[in-house]
Amino acid sequence: MDEKAAQDLLHQRSFIGRPMHSTLLANERDPEIRFDTKKQIAAFTSQICEVIVGKTEAVKLAVACLLARGHLLIEDIPGVGKTTLSQALARSLGLVFQRIQFTSDLLPADILGNSIFDRNEQRFVFHQGPLFSQVVLIDEVNRATAKTQSALLEAMEEHQISADGVTYELPRPFFVIATQNPQYQVGTFPLPESQLDRFLMRIELDRREMLKELNPVFGAETLLEIQAKVRTIHTSSALLDYLQDLLDASRQRHRSGLSPRAGLALLHASQAWAMMNGRDMVLPEDIQAVGTAVMAHRLGHDIEQSGQSGRTLADALLNSVPVP
Predict the structure, then answer these.
(1) Which position among 111, 148, 259, 323 has the lowest Cβ density within 10 Å, counted as fewest Cβ atoms?
(2) Are strands 166-169 and 160-163 parallel, antiparallel or unpaired?
(3) Contacts with 316 (C-beta within 8 Å, 6 or more apart), sequence order
(4) For the residues 158-162, what does the mean pLDDT come to?
(5) What angle, rounded to 10 degrees, do the helices at 260-276 and 237-253 form?
(6) Nearest-angstrom CA–CA distance, 65 and 68
(7) Domain range holding 188?
């Protein structure tokens, strides 16, 4: 468990035993303000559903992933609307959007940036790559080699990149949406478990719609405020124990199991789902709603239970671990 994840978990655990109101920002105790936040999120989600027709559940999961400050992995065959969903999310918030097409010959510097010698200043000047955007669509992430894929790890976890011994902060909010082709297709390189764990959720789409003109529902500053409010949603001691039981069960039944980062991802996604439904506390139904999307890609195919997809294994966990 990395240091940042440990600190985050300790911070969450520190809320146990306190009255609920102590876990909320002062303005979040105002029901009217909570209602306004719910309306903003509902308007945002509704506009995207006008573009991706018939996939309300997938859209809501994508919005929850964004509000939870996570990153999203979309796996499906080409041409079903993965890029369309990414553009709709960015345009509906007026965020800077950049698309990167991953190929087998792509190098880390192609996405992070390069230092180029400036003859006038007589020094090397760093030129930012396409990763320096607020919403980054990485198309066909598993068509790049492991070296290029690994260049994303620091950016996704720390919201920064390092080049030539210098650290550069990425814009905020920073949201990575990666599309992945099915493993059986030619020319794909499987994502390592460490990178899969950086994605808060994985969803699937099965239809394509045309992207119409979209107007921003709210801007980047409002999004950052909502993301901060998500972390204040109260989670009871019993539900934190339930999350730990899910992690323990996954490690007992599956070869690798879920990491502590996966537990934090499930917690934050549940908080976002609760806020989207106008509540200031997490219910077991919130964990059940986002559980499969958060856990499936982390479980994958288990060696001892060949043929079962990560989705099947995640559903089995949710159905077998007792709910408080």
Answers:
(1) 323
(2) antiparallel
(3) none
(4) 89
(5) 140
(6) 5
(7) 3-18+26-320
Closest by CA position to 264, among listed 229, 231, 223:
231
Residues 6+ apart with CB under 8 A from 321: 242, 245, 246, 249
* Least confident range of 3-17, 24-38, 160-174, 198-212: 3-17
Q: Which ranges of the chain does DSSP label H, i.e. alpha helix?
A: 3-13, 31-49, 56-67, 82-93, 108-112, 146-150, 152-158, 193-196, 220-230, 237-253, 260-276, 284-299, 310-320
Largest CA-CA distance found in the chain, in angstroms, rounded: 67
Residues paired with 127 in a beta bridge: 114
Whole-prediction pTM value?
0.75
- How many folded domains does the chain comprise? 1
Rg, C-alpha atoms of the chain: 20
What's the CATH code of the domain at 52?
3.40.50.300
Q: DSSP assignment, residue 26?
A: G
Residues 300-324: b if buried by 16+ CB within 10 A, e if exposed: bebeeeeeeebbbbbebbbeebeee
pLDDT digits (tens, 9 = 90+) for 23-49: 334 444 455 545 588 888 888 888 888
Q: In angstroms, what CA-CA distances link 237 with 6, 264, 312?
A: 17, 14, 28
DSSP-H helix ranges across 94-236: 108-112, 146-150, 152-158, 193-196, 220-230
- Cβ contact 160:168 at 8 Å: yes
- Report d(CA 119, CA 141) in Å as an integer: 36
Quick one: which of 290, 244, 282, 283 has its CA closest to 266?
290
Spatial separation of the C-alpha atoms in residues 157 and 159, rounded to whole Å: 6
Residue with tokens 């079962």: 308
